[in-house]
Amino acid sequence: MGTKNIHIRHIAALLILPLMAACSTQREATRPDSRIGHFKSSPATQKPYTVRGKRYEPLASHEGFEQEGLASSYGRGFHGRKTSNGERFDMRAMTAAHKTLPMGVYVKVQHKRNRREVVVRINDRGPFVQGRIIDLSTAAAEKLDMIREGLAPVKVTALGYRYQDSTGRTGYTKPESYDKGNFTLQVGAFTIRENAYRYADQLRRKYGHADVQEAVVRGEKFYRVRMGRYTSLKETQARQDYYQQNGFQGCFAVAVDR
């Protein structure tokens, strides 16, 4: 979905590739395990999602984020419904929907024609209409004086996570990071135990580390073969790209408990 005049100086998006039952080198793995590849260390709202056939990858950080384009608003028809982060939408609250910014981040929205500004908290996903970059609550749209026109050219600047100090002064924290943690690459999911452990032994001899995790999914036992140990998601993704180009097509990063 296109946007107008997007300027993003720093984007670090979480990447979780779609599930494949195994790499192309190991087609014995059968039905896909729909839970493989979910990052246990990241909230659900940070996981990639698809709307109308287009994939969106939430940003790992808001730092340095600026964007220009059209703002729209939503209100009474959605009042009381659940937002993407589980809250109930309140058309009178100063909130907004954005396709990729982390939930809970506050952003400044400036109307480029009348120069009015509002600060809103991101608690929903959208808008999924071509050309629009942010969907404001009715209260926020009213403060920007854009209700009558419906759409308005705006500049969105990410501020951070709001806090108040002991004197009551409001400020914004530095960005949260989802990059640190324990990660590995999943390279296969088998239903036959012997095949999984045989494959892991081969990988261990060649690449130094590989193991098998057993899990029951919808009543069926799967043996997930994983390779490598990493403490950075970016590093894991770099190795993922390398291995995908060298015989492990379909492997993907997963977070693990250590």
Describe the protein's architecture and organization.
- The chain is mostly beta strands and 258 residues long.
- It folds into two domains: 17-42 and 179-258, Alpha-Beta Plaits (2-Layer Sandwich), CATH 3.30.70.1070; 61-173, RlpA-like domain (Barwin-like endoglucanases), CATH 2.40.40.
- 34% of the residues are buried.
- The strands form three sheets. The protein has a six-stranded mixed β-barrel with strand order 3-7-4-6-5-8. Strands 11-12-10-13 form a four-stranded antiparallel β-sheet.
- Strand 1 (49-51) and strand 2 form a beta hairpin.
- It contains three helices and 13 strands.
- It has helices at residues 138-143, 193-207, 233-244, and strands at 49-51, 54-56, 66-74, 95-97, 106-111, 117-124, 132-137, 152-164, 170-173, 180-190, 210-217, 220-232, 252-255.
- The two termini are 39 Å apart.
- Mean pLDDT is 80; it is low at 1-42.
Topology (elements, then pairings):
Layout: E1 49-51, E2 54-56, E3 66-74, E4 95-97, E5 106-111, E6 117-124, E7 132-137, H1 138-143, E8 152-164, E9 170-173, E10 180-190, H2 193-207, E11 210-217, E12 220-232, H3 233-244, E13 252-255
Parallel strand pairs: 3-7, 4-6
Antiparallel strand pairs: 1-2, 3-8, 4-7, 5-6, 5-8, 8-9, 10-12, 10-13, 11-12
Q: Radius of gyration, Cα only, in angstroms?
A: 22 Å
Q: Mind describing the biggest β-sheet?
A: 6 strands, mixed, barrel
The helix tally amounts to 3
Strand order of the largest sheet: 3-7-4-6-5-8
Helix content: 10-25%
Assembly type: single chain
- Give me the CATH fold name of the largest domain: Barwin-like endoglucanases
Question: How many β-strand stretches?
Answer: 13
CATH level 4 superfamily of the largest domain: RlpA-like domain
Proper CATH architecture of the largest domain: Beta Barrel
Q: Assign an overall shape.
A: elongated
